[in-house]
Structure formats: structure tokens, C-alpha cells
Amino acid sequence: MSIFEPPPTDTAILVREWIEFRPVNQLGEDAAIEFHVVPQSSGYLDLKQSRLNVKIKITKGDGSSVTEADVVAPINLLLHSLFSQVECQMQQKPVSQVGTNYSYKAYIDTLMTTDESKRCFNGSQLFFKDSSGQFDDADAKTGGNLGLYERWSYTRNGGVVDLEGPILLDLFQQERLILNGVTLDLKLWPSRNAFRLMSDSIQPNEKMKIVDATLKMCIQRPNPALTMAHSKELEESTALYPYMNSSIKIASIAEGEFSFSADNMFQEEVPSQLILGLVSSKSYIGDYKRSPFNFQHYDCNFVALYVDGQSLPAKPLQPQFGEENYLSAYQTLQSISSDVWIDREEYAKGYTLYILDINPYVDFNVKRKAHCRLEMRFAKALPESSL
To answer: What local confidence, expressed as pLDDT, does residue 332 receive?
Structure first.
């Protein structure tokens, strides 16, 4: 028993503070928001603890403020759905590879990895789960989508709404601090208004206006002795920042198809884990009447990934949604984490995602090279074009 010893004291970090950085360009309707983080002489960048703050308001097509009579509301996870693409550079080298699907990465990450004790804080990003089976109900005022109603309650009077949360790029989700003297540039491209808004208007043309934006960069100032030790270490080796890289691949399936097959989607690289979801092509492009996060099953009855001809996992998924027999597909969500925010009753009604666990340990093994083929089949012809 250590009742005669003082508790351990961390002397490595002397100060932690959040420094606010403003956009280096003027905010515009379709212009990207750019931040430039200057090199810190003694401070290390803590990307995981950094925050993005955005102030928004919804306006009519002519620029005037909406009122409660205008039934228009943002889609889910607005802080991240505002942006279709987020580019990050360090020392003028790109470090993000999400492409134009940042909204989907952020949404899936939030559903799959949010700790139950922290879910209440997602309201600061305007994340309120859509009611299962009601994703495409654009009537925020009297419709059946309670999540849409919650978001509408914040924006219905046309006032400015404050949003804040982490940046959900891969590098920003790793634990290690970025050494001092590193330049960081962040560029956020806005998504289309028809993508990030749902409207019950007959001829919807509402807009989302970004009023202000701030990057709150967390700076950790270590003990000078630690900084000197790192400087000496850098003379002989380089700093390492291991993290799991994620990428999003898009493939179109035409209306009326009964099957889908894609060869070599990953350019001969084998992913550790594959998350599959199907959304309407119209909602993906942007439709005021439809949610882009409505992951439908479309009566899919076969999902398999073949790596050099071998099925991984060994037995393909064969759900039967028409008979409400899809538990095996639902159980694949557990391979992500124990914090998955999708109930069994919700799964087939807008939350249908399939997880194929190729490497069950999801570790930092050497990249595996092989030929991959994805196959999906449907019990009924696809009623619409999907992705």
C-alpha cells in the first residue's frame, strides 16, 4: 500500500491553452474557409483536443432570414455536413485523403465510435439522431422525424446558431502531439445547400450562410528539457505519427439492377476493415426532400469481399430483410467498437451498414497487396440509382 507516497506528478507539460485562429480569407457563399496555423516556437500541436467553431444561419433564397413559417432544417451532424471536403497540409504536404466525402466519414465515425457518456455533447455539433424510417420526411414541424425537429428548433427563427466540435480527419484523431515548428494549413470546402438542408417548401431554395468561423488550436507547452531532448533525438531519427488511414470509395449502381460487382476498388491494397452502405444517388448529389444519410438496404441479400478469390470473412453476409432476418448483418457493427449508436430496430430503417472485418485486429501491420472484388446482390430490382 502506497499510503505514504505522494501521487505521481506530470512535469512534462507546463501549460495547455487554446489559441484561436481566424480564416485567412474572406467568408463567401461558395468559397472555401482557409486557416493557417503558424509554427510554434515552443508549443506542440494537440490536434485531437483542437476544436472548430462555426456560426451559421439559414436564409431564404433572397437572403432574408427564415421565420417559423418556413419549414426548413439542417441535416444531421451539421458542423461536419457543412463541408464536403476538408484538406489538411503540414509543412505544405497533404495529410488528408477523404476527398469530397468528408460529411460521410464524420457521420459514420460519430455513429460508430461515440462513447455513450459523451453523446450528450454531440448536440454542440447539431447531431440529433434521425427517427428510423423517417429520414426522407422533410416536414420538420409536424413530420415524424424527431431528429429533424430538434435541429429545426435551433434554426427556425432565423437566428445565428453556434456549432463547435473536433475535426474528424484521421490525423486529428490520433493521440500524439505534433512537434513545434510545424506549419499547418486547413481548407474546408462548403457542401451544396440542397445537400445540407431539408425543406418542405414547394420550390425550395433556402441557403445556409456561414457567419463566422474560428479554429481553436490546442497548444501544449512542454518542459524545456523535454523540448531539448526531442531536438537531439531528431538529429538521429524522425518523429513517427501512426494512425489508421481511411478512404471513401464511391461506385454507382443503376436503377433496375439485381447485382453489383466491383473489381480492384482498392488498387491492389487490402483494407483492414470495410464499411459498406447504400444511399440514393439523388440524395448524395443533394435534394432538399431527401436525407443524404439514409442508408437503405434495398433488399440486399448477399454481400461478399473476395481477396485473391478467397471470401473474407469466410461466409458472405446473406440478410433477408423482407423476412426481418438480418441479425448477422447487424452483428457486424460490433467489430468497430462497443459504442455503436444503432439499435437493432433501427438497423433496417436508414441505418443499414455492413462491416467486413478483413483484419480482425485492425493493427499497424505492413500493407497487404492482393486483388479485391466486392459483390452485392438484391432480392428485388433496385428502385432507383444508388451509390
So the answer is: 94
Distances (CA, A) of 190 to 114, 157, 306: 25, 23, 36
pLDDT tens by residue, 93-147: 999 878 899 999 999 999 998 777 777 889 999 999 999 999 999 999 999 999 9
Q: What are phi and psi of 302, to 5 degrees?
A: -160, 125
Amino acid at 145: N
Predicted TM-score (pTM) of this structure: 0.94
Give CA–CA dist 170/117, Å, rounded: 22
Which distant-in-sequence residues (6+ apart) come within 8 Å of 147 by Cβ?
Answer: 76, 128, 129, 130, 131
Average pLDDT over residues 16-44: 95
Give the bridge partners for 315, in sequence order: none
Nearest alpha carbon to residue 35 among 78, 100, 88: 88
d(CA 48, CA 169): 10
Mean pLDDT of 319-337: 93
Question: Which residues have a Cβ under 8 Å from the Cβ of 105 and sit 6 or more positions away?
Answer: 98, 168, 246, 248
d(Cα 27, Cα 212) in Å, to the nearest integer? 8
Q: Which of 234, 230, 224, 335 is nearest to 276 (CA)?
A: 335
In the chain the first and final C-alpha atoms are separated, in Å, by 60
Instruction: Map out the domains of the chain with their CATH numbers.
Output: 13-225 (3.90.249.10), 259-378 (no CATH)
The Cα angle at residue 169 between residues 84 and 59, in degrees rounded to 5: 35
Grid cell listed for 81: 455536413
As given in the structure block, the three cell numbers for residue 33 are 474557409
5, three cell numbers: 507516497
Mark out the alpha helices in 90-200 (DSSP H runs): 102-113, 146-155, 193-196
* Predicted confidence (pLDDT) at residue 1 exceeds the cutoff of 60: no
Residues with Cβ within 8 Å of residue 383, at least 6 apart in sequence = 255, 298
